[in-house]
Amino acid sequence: MSGHGHAPGGGPGTTLVGTGGAALDPVTVTVVTAALGAAVLLAGYGLALAQLHRRGDEWPAARTAAWTTGCALAAVGVAVSASAAQAPRPFTTHVAGHLLLVMAAPLLLALAAPVTLLLRTGSGAPRAALVRLLHGRWARLVTRAPVVAVLEVGGLAAYYLTPLHTAAHQHPVLDVAVHVHMAAAGYLLAAVLVGPDPVPGRPGVTGRAVLLVAVAAGHAVVATLVHAHGLPGAGGATADVRAGGQLLRYGGDVVELALAVLLFAGWYRAAGRGVERERRRAAAAVSGHLDRPGVHAPVLPERAGHER
Amino acid sequence: MTDPGPPRTAAGDRLAVQRPDTRRSVLAGVLVGIGVAAFVDEVVFHQLLQWHHFYDRSTREAGIFSDGLFHAVGWTAVVAGLFLFAHLRRLGTASVRRVTGGGLLGWGGFQLYDGLVQHKLLRLHQVRYDVDLLPYDLAWNGAAVAGIAVGAVLLLRARRADR
Lengths: 308, 163
Fold this sequence. Notes:
- Helices cover 72% and strands 1% of the residues of chain A.
- By secondary structure, chain A is mainly α.
- By secondary structure, chain B is an all-alpha fold.
């Protein structure tokens, strides 16, 4: 099967004619569009940062770095995916672009806290609309763990295991829509699991761990099925499709591991803050209220060396 | 006035009680043990030795589902277990014997599941190809059973030592 993994934004065979009369190939159009999109996202973040800076507000440099890298990876992902049709191993190349665009980039973008930045810099009607949206029924619905899992794994499974795959290659608009869905679902997953932005009704750490395991397992299953049976309508797996399925599998593992580390490191930090708070409160109780009944005189050494 | 009990943080830590947190020590051990089983399976047997195959022709669909879950649980468990262990150490409430016992139990249990259910029942893949499988299977599952036994003994002895 030829031509899987062509770009969102321009199918092979469509040739756009530029204003100068020179023929532009669809790959170039796609790459330029992606670069422009990334530049717009970068500029928007930069403008908001400038506003914070004028007010003298702080913003973590790591978030700015995450946003910049995320935008760059998304554009590179589109470019890699777009060039897949001409590559010696089209499907494997497509998967590499897929991993960058719908897994790595959304994670970095979510870590950059764009919603918090908008809430802090926006004003008037747009900001009010954003607040309404965040508190609205839809936001509550799409951030529920089972919904996130279905949106994420469902999109992936539909694209790689159903006739949607062939249809997306025939209709560039559908291809773009499917990739936008997968990137948005990747962003949603990262935002709910590890993002610094406020999420309505975010599950606790156990609920988020279960969500992560479910999504990672679903991802591994889809990748292994592609590796085993090939793409729908292609009549078996070629060497390229086998390698692509394997790359999808291991690339997903890497992102899962990163999400797990971020999730539990966040829990560890929050638990540490709780311990500190309780130590201060207990120390205050020792100095002030030792005579009150029912208040334990807490034993609070810096570290109780209790080993057995 | 009723006794409110020792203070607790949002993470459920009792600060005034400086006894080992037995339940969460076992949990941290089991999680790390599960993760180590999945990690050794992936890194040593799939990647370094290349004895295990990602997929072979006798693999059943159920095997693909089970394998996906096996590795997803493994990666998540090892990270969760290590952070939980670090947290208990920070509080000074880790019971090392229970972490070790739980770890062996988790490792052995997951290894045995892999060896019996995934390799044999679901025929996901075998320990090694083109060899007489019996000694490999015995070593694989025997090690798992030994891990479970030693882990259980350690946990029982830790419990007796507390009394």
